[in-house]
Each structure stands twice: as C-alpha cells, then as structure tokens.
Amino acid sequence: MTDLSRRHDFVLLFDVKNGNPNGDPDAGNMPRLDPETGHGLVSDVSLKRKIRNYVEIAHGGTSGRAIYVQEGAILNEQHRKAYKAVRVGEKVEGTKLNPKSDDEAEELRLWMCANFFDVRTFGAVMSTGINCGQVRGPVQMTFAQSAEPIVPQEISITRMAATTAKEKEQRREGEAEVEGDVRTDNRTMGRKHIVPYALYRGHGFVSAKLCERTHFSDEDFELLMEALVSMFEHDRSAARGEMAVRKLIVFRHDSALGNAPAHQLFDRVTVSRNIEGEPRAIDSRLDNYPPARAFSDYVVTIDRENLPAGVEIIERL
C-alpha cells in the first residue's frame, strides 16, 4: 500500500426521481435549493455521509477501514482508543486528555488516520476534550447543483393505523360522514416533499500532497471510487427510492501538484438537453423545453481534444 502520488479531480453526475435528495431542516425538510436561481442543491456533507455509510456496510470490520463519524458514536471515546494504543500499559481515564509532547501528538494523529478511513480521507477536528489534534483531509467535495431549476412538490399522505387506544377512539367518534360508498374518517395527515426529476452535478478533488500527510493510498482511492459509484445502491428509503449515480469522470494528473487548473478541466464536461435527438444548451432564461423526467432527456459530452499535457480522462462510470 503506497500513498497516492498523483493529483485527481472528478465530476460526479447523479439523479433523483420522485424523491428528496437532501432535505433542509431549516425549511421543513424541503429539498435544498438556491433561492435566487431555483437550482436544487445537495450538500457536500450529505455526499460524504453516503460514502461513509457505503464503506461501513461493504468493508466494516476490515482493518484500517473503520468509520470515525457514525450515528451514535461518541467521538471522544474514539480518541481514547488512540491514547490506549500510544500509551501502552498506562491508565487512560478522564474526560480531558492532551498529548505530552509534539511527538506523541503526531503518533495520536497518525493512529487515527491509520485506523479510520474517513479521517485519512476527509480529515477531522479531533481536539474536543480528549485531544487528538486536527487532520486536513486530501479529499474534498463541493455542493452538487441541479442542471436546471427544480420545482419541489409537497405531497399529502395519510396513516390509517392509530398509535394509541385513545387516538383510535377519537377516530371512531370522527367517523360521521359517509359519501356514497366512501367513508371519510379522522385519519392522521402528513406531508412529504419530492423532486419529480433532477440531474445533479458535483465536483471533487484529491490532493496528492495531503495524501502524504494522512497516508491516503492508491487502495483508498479505489475504495473511494467504488463508494462514489455505489453509494445510492445501499441508501434506499421512502424519500430516496430512485437515486442513481450516472457518470463519474476522473481527471488524472501525472504529477502531485497537477498539470492544469481543475476548473478548466471541469469545463470540458458539458450537460445539455436532449431535444429530438439533438443536444441543446441549457439556458433557463431563454429555453422553453418540456420538463426533464429521465436521464435520457440529457446529453453528457466530454471534450477530449487538446488535453493539457500530463492529464488523462478516465470514465469510471
């Protein structure tokens, strides 16, 4: 296992159908969106959560692939494991612990990187109480944004079952109206928010120089690619029943520092509307296209001409 020696940048395209890809808790769990443009958003935190979940499901229990940030975890207890490993034979107790020296601080940081996949991938702030320092991760991701403005819909739902005997009795008392052959009763009402269809685009970056500091390896990179491709396959729910990664396009550089600016490489990937078999540029101010309802309503093109020297395009999906 060797540290990653070359820089990578990537474009991730994924879509949602009749689901909520990333609810906003400050807006009643409505799908996140840019209020000025109406484009849908999915946060980087949400995408990283999906990657963590995949690694935990597919490789849980494998040495070096534990997940640091997981539901219900007490982070300081994760830090305590590092102190126990470094201070062999000593009692590691209390809610406040700090390294005795710079060398010990480095040992603690490296132990966390070696044992937790998400620490050496995304980094972590581990200076809370039981102090293991901070790690700047080599892998960073942007917010994903929809190719076109979205129109979230609010759907009414009902629940027929009662939660308590008292609620059941109240419902019986409310069964007063009968219209034809249909009985209307006092059912529990609810709401759910969906996006009928949207194609989202996000960008990611893998810094080879930061890989050296956390020992993020070529093997870790392959696991990251595996997780990006498959993360929605194991994240099904009523709100996210039909989400899928459609494209993963990687730009691999020949050097650790890179051979071209990331934004210039990303501009080579274009998403257009498929109108009667012809790709048409998306401009929400001018176009009057019918609403997209499937990935086939889009065309993804990659400009491979005159690539900067030392840059290779790899389609992982």
TrEMBL record:
| Species annotation | Consotaella salsifontis
Per the UniProt entry, what is one GO biological process? maintenance of CRISPR repeat elements
> Which protein, by its recorded name, is this?
CRISPR-associated protein, Csd2 family
Q: Which residues cross the membrane?
A: none
Which top-level group of life is the source organism from?
Bacteria
InterPro entries membership: Cas7_Csh2/Csh2, CRISPR-assoc_prot_Cas7/Csd2
Identify one Pfam family in the record: Cas_Cas7
